[in-house]
Amino acid sequence: MSCGCSSATPTIDEKTMSMINDHPCYSKDAHYSYARIHLPVAPACNIQCNYCNRKYDCSNESRPGVTSQKLKPLDAIKKVLLVGSEIKNLSVVGIAGPGDALANPQKTFETLALVREYAPDLKLCLSTNGLKLPEFVEQIKEAGVDHITVTINTIDPKVGAQIYPWVYFEGKRYKGEEGAALLLSKQLEGIKKCVEAGILIKANSVLIPGVNEEGLPEVSKKLKEMGVFLHNIMPLLSEPEFGTYYGINGVPSATDEQLAKAQEACGMDMSLMTHCKQCRADAIGILGEDRSSEFTPESFGDKSVDELVALYDIEGRKKAKDKIESFREIMKEANERAEAEKKMLSSNGETVCIAVTSSDFATVNEHFGTVKEFLIYEAGDMGFRFLTKRSVENGYCAGPDSCENPMDDIKAALHDVKLLLTAKIGGCPQDTLKEMGVVSIEKYAKLAIAEALMSAAKEYFGHESEEG
Q: 218, 397, 405, 433: most buried by Cβ count inside 10 Å?
């Protein structure tokens, strides 16, 4: 089972695995199976970020330009119970704003206590900029929170001064490098205390083009040294209509290419979260979906907590989770079998998908133009296995007097294929397949499929190694 996750992913011990098994943010596997809810009970913030507009959710932690509805703790627990009664795979409650969880400690900890009392099967999380983290670590632990996200964008106060106009701490507003240095010291102190307390830390960093992108590998290196579990690099979202300082002043959103480059550089030192969806502060559902509109205050406001506890049905939820885990175990075993079979096919774990045109399922004897069913195999340099048959509605040539050329259907059937073994193929379809990365081979015509597959696979991997 993987976590988040990059080439630097370490071996995960049994205790940590149990902590992340059903947490969709900390486990890439879990995010397919489990849902989360964010409770917007923390409106105030104690720092200003140039990528944030306080009129809305943070545009880099949520879908931009959409105001959150703020909840009081009692309304928050009612919402959790209603959501949990309908979304049986709900596993995590997080407080992620819309300000900072620890800049609103009373509301945050009151909400966490209510969740722990009435929905004890849910994991508790919070997100913070880290400024107040050191003073609350003990209270966080007592509240039952064992997952914390800290947003740390740089470890250089000079860069931090370009990101944070001010930091408000103990009644005083700090600006420039002084403020950035103060924030950084508290972030590092808080992370250290959390790790020592056994709390899993995920660090978020916003990739800001021209500001902090070059320094992110150093951030990752520092996080790894401190024992942070996961690093999530998020692209800056900076459209002018978001109303942020960066958006108004022309600092562009980060591109996919910039994000990929940063992740590659940081993944050398640190395990990365690669499935983040930059969720809003009142997000509900599996990562990437938003069901918050289904659970308005009208749906739970007039119900009592006792009524909602009955609807929540904690025993029914446990049964639903058991079914999820049983399915995950079946899938895990199936994946392990597939990996074991792949190792039997290849000396180095590399295989290729090969399509064959055959009318007798024994030899490569069918013309590409007449085939309506492709045989699909997986092959390595040591062996092969049959995967499936893929049908197309019409052959490439419908008959001697009518050529329809249904290549879209054929291209869909061969989307993951690299080699096509066929008795004969014309120049036009051969060129079309070549454009999509499929090499058509006629020299194995009339040969037994087994012989043709092994010859083609060995030649394919032989050429590949020579080129590499």
A: 433
Secondary structure (3-state) at 59: coil
Measured between alpha carbons, how far is 71 from 81 in angstroms, rounded to an integer? 14
pLDDT in tens, 235-260: 888 877 777 888 888 888 888 888 88
Cβ atoms 270, 221 nearer than 8 A = yes
* Token pair for 155: 């470890």
Minimum mean pLDDT among 22-31, 115-124, 198-207: which range? Answer: 22-31
DSSP 232-294: EEEE----GGG--HHHHTTPPPPPHHHHHHHHHHHTTTS-B--------TT-EESTT---GGG
Contact 273/30 with Cβ under 8 angstroms?
no
| Complete edge-to-edge strand list for the sheet that includes strand 166-169 | 47-48, 166-169, 172-175
CA distances from 225 to 149, 229, 267 (A): 17, 10, 14
Which CATH topology does 14-312 take? TIM Barrel (3.20.20)
**DSSP 3-state of 125:** strand
Which regions of the chain carry the CATH code 3.20.20.70?
14-312
Q: Where in the chain do CATH 3.30.420.130 domains reside? A: 352-467
Q: What is the CATH number of domain 352-467?
A: 3.30.420.130
Q: Are 423 and 366 contacting, i.e. CB atoms less than 8 angstroms apart?
A: yes
Q: Is the peptide bond before 52 cis (omega within 30 degrees of 0)?
A: no
Highest mean pLDDT among 1-5, 32-36, 75-79, 403-407: 75-79
Angstrom distance (rounded) from CA 270 to CA 194: 18
